[in-house]
UniProtKB/TrEMBL annotation:
Pfam family, one: Cupin_2
Gene Ontology MF: a single term: DNA-binding transcription factor activity
Keyword DNA-binding: yes
InterPro entries: Cro/C1-type_HTH, Cupin_2, Lambda_DNA-bd_dom_sf, RmlC-like_jellyroll, RmlC_Cupin_sf, TransReg_Diox_bact_type
Alphabetized UniProt keyword annotations: DNA-binding
Protein name from the UniProt record: Cro/Cl family transcriptional regulator
Coiled-coil portions: none
Residues in HTH cro/C1-type domain copies: 11-65
Top-rank taxon, per record: Bacteria
Length: 188
């Protein structure tokens, strides 16, 4: 019986987007290439446990396989009044960082980049450094900033850009309280 959610096609798209062979997916997940092929061609309905393992391998939520939306679009337009404010960021110590993120892309699924507009209203009092997987690109749109990157302090002003590996301990601070707007693009 054909699967209503077309799970096989979604798995095939994930695999092809990452330029992986059936054999590579099979080796990594512990299933046979024949089974992966059967699932991709919608000849076999994978049990939830199998689907869960495949979702973990592709780093997607299992729910995406049950998404009834139309096929993935090649592009996404987000109008300035549609942006999603992600949150007012609070530090580990519970103090406000004085900044907000606006998601500049939220409909396109399984993207390799996450673009945000970062608005900083004041210089944070503490300087906790953060690190995570991936890479980061920052473009100063307005104001002045100080980027702490490991042991270095880098002064940035309007028009300046910086690209770095996110596993380096880092922190972006407003240089003063006059307001800072930054285009931040992060990869996983």
């Amino acid at each position: 019986m054909p699967m209503d959610y077309n799970i096989g096609e979604k798995i095939k798209k994930l695999r092809k987007a990452r330029k992986l062979t059936l054999q590579q997916v099979a080796s990594e997940t512990g299933f046979s290439p024949a089974l992966i092929s059967q699932i991709e061609n919608n000849n076999v309905s994978p049990p939830i446990a199998t689907l869960s393992k495949i979702a973990k391998f592709f780093d997607v939520k299992i729910g995406m396989f049950f998404d009834e939306e139309e096929a993935e679009s090649k592009y996404e337009v987000v109008r300035h009044n549609e942006r999603r404010v992600v949150s007012r960021v609070i530090s580990k110590s519970g103090t406000g960082h004085g900044y907000t993120y606006e998601a500049l892309s939220f409909r396109k699924r399984n993207k390799k980049m996450e673009p945000f507009l970062l608005s900083v209203s004041e210089r944070a009092q503490e300087e906790t450094l953060y690190s995570h997987e991936g890479e980061e690109f920052l473009l100063i749109l307005e104001g002045k900033a100080e980027l702490i990157l490991e042991e270095e302090r880098i002064f940035l002003e309007e028009g300046d850009a910086v690209y770095f590996d996110s596993d380096a301990k880092h922190r972006l601070l407003a240089y003063d309280d006059s307001g800072l707007r930054v285009l931040a693009v992060v990869t996983r």
